[in-house]
Amino acid sequence: MSASKLVRVGMGFLGACGAALAFASCLPEYANNELNCPPYEDFAAVSTLLERRCGTLDCHGDGARPLRIYGQYGLRLKPEDSDDDTLFSGNLERATTEIERESNYRSVCGLEPELTHQVVNGELAVERLTLVRKPRLSEKHKGGRIWNEGKPPDRCLVTWLESKYEPGTMDTADCEAAVTE
């Protein structure tokens, strides 16, 4: 096949695909980065749980981990407008900052975005998420079992992930109980 014929075949394919893309008929509904993540309004309690149980420097408070958790118990994130280097000292007296919490949210939502989208929309069981399987030890986890299915920390995370409530109204009692355990 000549080079010019290859180009024409390629152009024909691209043209057909381009037309299909224009109508988005061959793309999943979230192809334009419109993925649902559980509500940020309710994430503070979940973030506190993750920081306490998973965010130490020898675990997900390590900057090299795919699920990176920032907070007062481990890895710190310096706010862009701050010259205060004490944030990096692991000072337990300094509360987790909003920028750290936002980074935790992006990390959690970005771990398996398509699957999380399906869980939030009720299309997929929450047990399909790595974020649920690993702390339960239903999948190998270097940190071992972090909590048992159905216990307060698990209910905290699952309630938030499934989001079967109006944003901003999540009952955080399980999250609070899990942090004090």
> How many helices?
7
Low-confidence stretches: 1-24
Helix content: 40-55%
Radius of gyration: 21 Å
Beta-strand percentage range = under 5%
Morphology call? globular
- Count of spatially separate domains: 2
What can be said about the biggest beta sheet?
none
Termini separation (Å)? 70 Å
Strand tally: 0
What number is the mean pLDDT? 82
Order of helices and strands: HHHHHHH
Could you say which structural class the secondary elements and strand pairing correspond to?
mainly alpha
- As an assembly, this protein is single chain
Describe the protein in words:
The chain is an all-alpha fold and 181 residues long. It folds into two domains: 1-30; 35-180, no CATH class. It is 45% helix and 0% strand. It contains seven helices and no strands. It has helices spanning 3-23, 43-54, 98-111, 113-120, 130-136, 152-162, 173-180. Helix 2 packs parallel to helix 7 (173-180) and helix 6 (152-162) packs antiparallel against helix 7 (173-180). The longest helix has 21 residues, at 3-23. The termini are far apart. 25% of the residues are buried. The model is unreliable at 1-24 (pLDDT under 50).
